[in-house]
Amino acid sequence: MKIIVDLNLCQDHGQCAIAAPAVFRMNDDGKLEYEEIAEESRRAEVEEAADVCPVQAILIEG
Amino acid sequence: MTTPHVVVVGASLGGLRAAEQLRARGFEGRVTVIGEERHLPYNRPPLSKEVLADAGDNDPGRLHGRVEFRRKASTADVDFALGVPVVGSDLARRELRLGTGERLRYDGLVLATGLRPRRLDLPGPVQGRHSLRTLDDCVGLRAELAGLTEPSVTGERTSVVVIGAGFIGCETAATLVKRGCDVTVVEPFGAPMERVLGSDLARAVQRHHERAGVRFVLGASPAAYVEDPTAPQRVRGLRLADGTVLDADLVVESVGSLCNTEWLDGNGLDLRDGVLADNDLRVVGAERVVVVGDVARFPNPLFDDVPRRVEHWSIPTETAKRAATTLLAELTGSAPDPLPFAPVPSFWSDQLDLRLQSFGSPGLADEARLVEGDLDRLADGVLLTYHRLGSHVGTIAVNLPPARQRELREEFLARTPAIPVSA
């Protein structure tokens, strides 16, 4: 599946990195880094990350 | 038997997540979500922050577009009945009474009606009195701010009184002072957000707001709204119980919430503070009925066996998952979740240049410990842990790096003793 984060919306809350640490992480500068393509086996945690994003910046395609 | 029909009453975050979670668990029957508001589900936290901060376009449809939740493909066939209040119910007959006069039968029911702001019953004019929970509330407040900002060319700033120094009140005050308003917060009880933050952090946050220009009048009770002599029925000020009058072009009442449960009266449920549920979110005293979101009063074994409501944004999503599993087990005989339901409550609040992030339930604590940082330099980052009878029940971080959120949450979980949650 493809992951798109609207970086204009993202406020670096870091909740996605709690929900799906294999896909989203906050770097030492406090900014988001993420995998743009994730394995299908990670769908549940990626959906969880999208659900818990306080600004709803994460879009999953496919 | 035909496939069952699940009705979700309430079309905000909890109702939306409940519908999604029913589908995510393979439920193929009919799902109807009934909402009193006319809008499809949208995200409320920005209403006291980004959306209120912006003085631009006030078209309700376009503002809704900025905060609307994405519709998942799995819920494409969920029916949303919007602008329809549910006014009564007969749970023994599995029947709801709608504001349209219609009756609606269900096989399974999800309660997700949430809260509404408590309003003050004060004498005086009514124009200029606001509360802030719904998108329409926010549109009304923004419209009035836009109308009042025009005289500012004369150098006069819009005066706003915020009644209540809880989270919504403090976020609103911070946003409006940044918009150039003259803001006074009136709070009858302690320091801002003190019940959750504890007195040391609450006073530190107050000082931070004061340095940004927000004034606080603590320990004062509002007594009456004062009329504008040039505009009948329009607020010009707020009189306090001691006779002081505070200037106010508009007032925002943020004095807590009431549970939307009146429509459940007469069914023998415990509705003393929200809807009493067991640890699986099954409504006590009803069959095939579950409850989600901030109207659900349920025990969380992370802390103890006392049922409590939790008014955090994370709770609708967490409770919807468990409630969907519970309801489907009753409707279709699928497996219930054998583990105790023990969500980690979590909230954030953005105020001025501060971001407060919490894990656990600091409000239950009898003691707060400053672990890192200096309370007089909140923006540089502080960490407090909260304890009840010596047990760690919560953590609050202010302006700590997001990379540490995960570690802080895990530390909280590791230190929390209470009832074992792995069953």
UniProtKB/TrEMBL annotation, chain A:
InterPro entries: 3Fe4S_ferredoxin, Fe-S_cluster_ET. GO terms for molecular function: 3 iron, 4 sulfur cluster binding; electron transfer activity; iron ion binding. Keywords: 3Fe-4S, Electron transport, Iron, Iron-sulfur, Metal-binding, Transport. Pfam families: Fer4_13. Its cofactor is [3Fe-4S] cluster. The keyword Plastid does not apply. PANTHER family: FERREDOXIN. Ferredoxins are iron-sulfur proteins that transfer electrons in a wide variety of metabolic reactions. This is Ferredoxin. It comes from Intrasporangium oryzae NRRL B-24470. The lineage of its organism: Bacteria, Bacillati, Actinomycetota, Actinomycetes, Micrococcales.
TrEMBL record, chain B:
Its cofactor is FAD. InterPro entries: FAD-oxidoreductase/Apoptosis (IPR050446), FAD/NAD-bd_sf (IPR036188), FAD/NAD-binding_dom (IPR023753), FAD/NAD-linked_Rdtase_dimer_sf (IPR016156). It comes from the Bacteria. Residues 5-311 form the FAD/NAD(P)-binding domain. The keyword rRNA-binding does not apply. GO terms for cellular component: cytoplasm. Keywords: FAD, Flavoprotein, Oxidoreductase. GO terms for molecular function: oxidoreductase activity, acting on NAD(P)H. This is Ferredoxin reductase.
